[in-house]
Specification:
Oligomer: single chain
CATH topology: L,D-transpeptidase catalytic domain-like
CATH architecture: Beta Barrel
Structural class: alpha+beta
Number of strands: 15
Shape: globular
Order of helices and strands: HEEEEEEEEEEHEEEEHE
Number of helices: 3
Number of domains: 1
Largest sheet: 11 strands, mixed
CATH superfamily: L,D-transpeptidase catalytic domain-like
């Protein structure tokens, strides 16, 4: 009876933490509910409609990169935040559509909560209707950068690419963006809390 009670208590604790364990994989499927953040009310993500491999989870991950490094696997649509002892937090992502892919190394130069979005001039040329935002689109639930943004710089300065949130949860696992790496808003909030300014970012 004591063993049975201990198992029940452990299972309840995991449930309350929003984390479930399957083998060596720890899923955070319960962490996609509505969130009140900085005066904004993020809606619940219907996570049951998102393929399970794109749910936030802690996985075994073999890399020589040090903890705190961010590795983006554009082919498999995963972003890894490297943890100690051979593990990483894995997030599902959306990536650049054909013609907008990129790869290389950068670092997180800036972090912004509820950022302003300013479309680059090249994007305005492709989509003239965005000219109204040439001086910036105010933060909010419809802002393309979502709840958080990490700004990536390289040796040449601002790369123009971001790791950012998106209200378009259905785009995760797909190639739809103009090159930036997008995460579900609840995931970018989690990544933002972990990643430090100066963190190395590798895009494969």
């Amino acid at each position: 009876m004591r063993l049975k009670s201990a198992i029940i208590v452990a299972a309840l604790a995991a449930s309350l933490a929003g984390c479930s364990t399957i083998g060596q994989m720890r899923l955070f499927t319960n962490d996609y509910g509505g969130v009140s953040d900085a005066g904004y009310q993020l809606p619940r993500i219907p996570i049951e409609k998102v393929p399970r491999q794109f749910h936030r989870q802690i996985v075994s991950y073999d890399t020589k990169e040090k903890p705190g490094t961010i590795i983006v696997d554009t082919g498999n649509k995963f972003l890894y935040f490297v943890l100690p002892e051979g593990e990483a937090v894995r997030y599902g992502i959306g990536v650049g559509r054909e013609g907008f892919e990129w790869s290389g190394s950068a670092h997180v130069a800036l972090k912004r909560e509820w950022p302003t979005w300013t479309p680059p001039s090249q994007m305005i040329k492709r989509q003239p209707e965005l000219a109204q935002y040439r001086n910036g689109m105010d933060p909010g639930l419809k802002n393309p950068l979502g709840a958080r943004a990490l700004y990536l710089f390289n040796k040449g300065g601002d790369s123009g690419y971001r790791l950012h949130g998106t209200p378009e949860w259905w785009s995760i696992g797909k190639a739809m963006s103009s090159g930036c790496i997008r995460l579900m808003n609840q995931d970018i909030i989690d990544l933002y809390s972990r990643a430090e300014v100066g963190a190395k970012v590798i895009v494969m």
